[in-house]
Design a protein that fits this description.
Elements lengths: L2 E7 L6 H11 L3 E5 L4 H10 L9 H6 L1 H15 L5 E5 L9 H12 L3 E9 L2 H11 L5 H5 L1 H7 L15 E7 L3 H17 L2
Parallel strand pairs: 1-3, 1-4, 2-3, 4-5
Helix pairs in contact: 1-9
C-alpha cells in the first residue's frame, strides 16, 4: 500500500486550517503539519534583520517564504518514514501551478513509496474577505488594506494542471463557502482518501 502526502491548499482564508484539521481527524495514521507553526521563527528573522513584520513585503518574499515551504515539506517527507499519511496545511498556491516543483515533489515521494494528493479548498473570494475580517490576523493587514491589488494577483482558480491522471497525484476539490458544501465535500474527500488505503 502506498503512503500519502496530502497538501490542503488554497489562497488565504478559504478555510484550509479548519478543513485540514477535520480531514486529519477523520483519517487513520496521520501526521498533521501546519506551516503557520513556523511563523514564530519567521518573526524572529524579521526582528534580527531589523525589518518590520510584514508577510507581504519584498523582504519576506526573498528571505523567508520559500524556506518555510521547504522546511514543512522536509518534515512531511521525513514523517512518512514513521506513519502512513502526512497532511500539510499550507497555501502552496504558487507551487501547485509550477510543473517543475510538482515533478520534483513527486520524485521525492516515489522514493518513499508515497502518492501525492492535493486538496484544493474552493471558496468564494467574498466569503474569504469576510473570514479575514472576522479572524483579525496581522497576516491579513496588507491584503485587506489593498484588497483590489491582492485580488488582482491572487489566483483562486482550480489548478486544473493537477488533474493529469498520468502522474502519480490526485486533485480533490473541497467546496467550503457554506456549511452544506463543507459537509458534502468532507464526506466525498474522506471517502476518496480512504478508498485509496
Amino acid at each position: 500500500m502506498k503512503k500519502k502526502l496530502i497538501l490542503v491548499t488554497s489562497p488565504p482564508a478559504c478555510g484550509k486550517t479548519y478543513v485540514a484539521m477535520k480531514l486529519a481527524a477523520e483519517l487513520n495514521h496521520v501526521v498533521y503539519l501546519d506551516k503557520d507553526a513556523l511563523i514564530i521563527l519567521s518573526r524572529q528573522i524579521f526582528e534580527v534583520a531589523n525589518q518590520p513584520y510584514d508577510r507581504s513585503s519584498d523582504f519576506f518574499e526573498e528571505y523567508i517564504r520559500d524556506y518555510e515551504y521547504a522546511a514543512i515539506l522536509d518534515m512531511a517527507v521525513d514523517a512518512l518514514e514513521y506513519d502512513d499519511i502526512a497532511l500539510i496545511n499550507a497555501p502552496f498556491t504558487r507551487e501547485v501551478r509550477n510543473p517543475r516543483f510538482m515533478e520534483s515533489l513527486r520524485q521525492d515521494l516515489m522514493r518513499k513509496n508515497a502518492r501525492l494528493y492535493v486538496v484544493w479548498v474552493v471558496t468564494d473570494p467574498a466569503i474569504c474577505k469576510k473570514r479575514m475580517i472576522r479572524r483579525n490576523s496581522d497576516r491579513d493587514t496588507w491584503k485587506l488594506a489593498h484588497w483590489d491589488e491582492y485580488m488582482a494577483k491572487t489566483d483562486f482558480s482550480i489548478p486544473e494542471e493537477l488533474n493529469d491522471k498520468s502522474k502519480d497525484q490526485e486533485l480533490l476539490l473541497f467546496y467550503n463557502s457554506n456549511e452544506e458544501e463543507f459537509r458534502k465535500s468532507m464526506k466525498e474527500v474522506v471517502r476518496k482518501l480512504q478508498d485509496e488505503e
